[in-house]
Amino acid sequence: MLWKNWSMANSAKIDQQELVLHGVAASPGIAIGEAYFLDRQRLSVVEHPIDDELVESELAAFADAVELARQQLRAVQAELEQQSRTEHFYIIDTQLLILQDDMLIGGTTALIRDLRINAAGALKRVLKNFRQTFDRIEDEYLRERGSDIELVGERILRNLAGHEPQALMDLDRRSVIIAHDLSPADTCQLDKRQVVAFVTDLGGRTSHTAILARSLDIPAVVGLENVTRRISAGAPVIVDGCSGEIVCWPSSKTLQAYLEKKRHYEFYQDELRNYCELPARTLDGQQVSVQANLEFPQEAEIARRNGALGVGLLRTEFMYMARSLPPTEEEQLDTYRQIIEEFNPYPVTIRTLDVGGDKFVPDLSLADEANPAMGMRSIRLSLWERKLFRIQLRAILRASAYGRVRLMFPMISGLSEVRACREMLTEVMAELRAQDMAFDENLEMGIMVETPSAVLLADVLAQEVDFFSIGTNDLIQYCLAVDRGNEHVAYLYEPFHPTILRALKTVADAARNAGISLCVCGEMAAEPMYSIVLMSLGYRELSMNSPGISRVKKLIRQWNTGKGEALVQTLLRQKTAADVLLSLHEAFAEFFPEADPGRDF
Fold first, then answer.
1. Which of 99, 133, 161 is the last residue of a domain?
2. Residues above pLDDT 90, as percent of the chain
3. Distance in Å from the first CA to the final CA of the chain
4. Region 157-168: what's the mean pLDDT?
């Protein structure tokens, strides 16, 4: 019926041509529906001076807009609670915390009072400063956290302008939401019975909204820049969240092709669900530990549901974002404990703070760095800001009393850093013993291997730690000197570059010779074709985002590690990334003759 209706609509509007747009594939799946526009376009704000006698009334108007935003977000939580969808409360809680942020609220108030300007103009200034700060951040995940602050700011601006928020819970047809941007609060309210996908001008794969879409299994394509200006309300739209493609006013031929693609995709997803609870064991009996990368505590349940046997990477940066002060020891302990208890008896690997200090740590004054990716960040910052580091170590150690915890330090470049971390850890352990506080005396300590120096020193570092974890995203970026976020050189970001294969083998050999465990927690682990190469190199722990777990398990259960040694030797003989990839495709055609290359890997 849908196809027939669209065909009739196309014949009635013969001037409408098929339009294909490409964006960022944020959440997989294929959806077909009508375009429904959500007005989330940024408001045009004009800053203007105000008379002295109007300052107090402008401050009051701003305070009222902030309070209204707070009420709106609490109303969303109430609606979610009524629908028994409390698993996404943390998203709203984050925005409520932002409404308490002194830099946002206090900063705006100060500008109104000191510069005698209107509230909207003052808030816009503060938001611009936030945007400039976050745009300089190297890490994509952390950079996207800036969008959360901007979305809260836009909500306040709309309240100042008297704009009523649109509701997303009462749609009466299968709709594709088209918006400039979606706040996490918007996404939480999506009714999956009617909202089949969403498409936005802004956003990236690691935004709160994209993460939520994946947890809700709603296809999404983001970062299209101007989709709100190129599609009209009510237009038929196909959204391919796997490729990042959307098609407006599709021809009958295109629609038929996508209906078939959608059928195949849904059949395959149903098949993959059968693998969630199955062991990741190869045909020749080799066990692989498939674990999850977590951004937020509330993703733990989703990861367990997808079959994760532990957490290979728990990022702790989320606790430090959108706050005027770092989290306390007790706040951190409570968060870690929740995740550890969810996965007990499986391990939870907690990575210490991995950010740049000049952006996130109050009372720390660092000059702007010309090259922040190689400056005061990650473990360097922790060893500089020892009070901050000590609080986090205390929280992690205390959390280890509730289950198996592994402690991991990021961006290690040499032995002196490892020894400095161990010395600090030993001091904190002594403190806790003196205070009669419980912790795991045999806590495993490991490092992220993500710098070329750590690779070259892998045999030395392996003698000092209990495990290695490979952060392939940064390892590739640093080894190849390529910023994958730079569109002009992104083509050089090649996971199968011979340099990367050799680096991975060097680290694997060092870990094996030292008898320590070895994990990969970068994006390579989530791709079945990459995961086979990693297993062939000797990696037996793979950690990834939850949606990739069952797909990787499927390939692992079809693989025989006896074939791996010959495969590695073949790949290591290749001289270019293209040659490596060609050899790998040939090997897969031999090893998995019945697999669908476009679907299985």
1. 161
2. 50
3. 33
4. 77
478 and 344 share one domain: yes
Q: Are residues 61 and 32 in the same domain?
A: no
203 in any annotated domain: yes
If you ran DSSP here, which 8-state letter would residue 30 be given? E
Give the predicted TM-score (pTM) of the model. Answer: 0.72
Q: Are strands 236-240 and 30-38 parallel, antiparallel or unpaired?
A: antiparallel
Tell me what the mean pLDDT of segment 583-599 comes to.
75
Which residues are designated catalytic? Answer: 208, 521
Please tell me whether the peptide bond between 362 and the residue prior to it is cis, using omega within 30 degrees of 0: no
Residue 524 lies in a domain: yes
Dump pLDDT digits (tens) for 183-237.
Answer: 666 766 677 778 899 898 887 776 666 766 776 778 999 988 888 888 888 899 9
Length of the chain: 601
Q: Tell me which of 108, 136, 161 is where a domain ends.
A: 161
Strand 175-179 with 444-449, pairing: unpaired
d(CA 406, CA 312): 9
Task: Name the residue among 553, 539, 535 with its Cα closest to residue 600.
Answer: 553
Asked if residue 515 is part of any domain, the answer here is yes
Q: Is residue 325 part of a domain?
A: yes
What b/e sequence results for 469-488 when a residue is b if at least 16 CB atoms lie within 10 Å of its CB, and e otherwise? bbbbbbbbbbbbebebeeee
CATH code: domain of residue 112: 1.10.274.10
Identify the band that residue 12 occupies on the pLDDT scale cut at 50, 70 and 90. very low
Distances (CA, A) of 488 to 283, 398, 496: 43, 46, 19
Find the CATH number of the domain harbouring 364: 3.20.20.60
What does the angle CA 502 – CA 504 – CA 508 come to, to the nearest 5 degrees? 115
Determine the average pLDDT of the residues in 264-270.
Answer: 87
**Distance between CA atoms of 300 and 297, rounded to whole angstroms?**
6
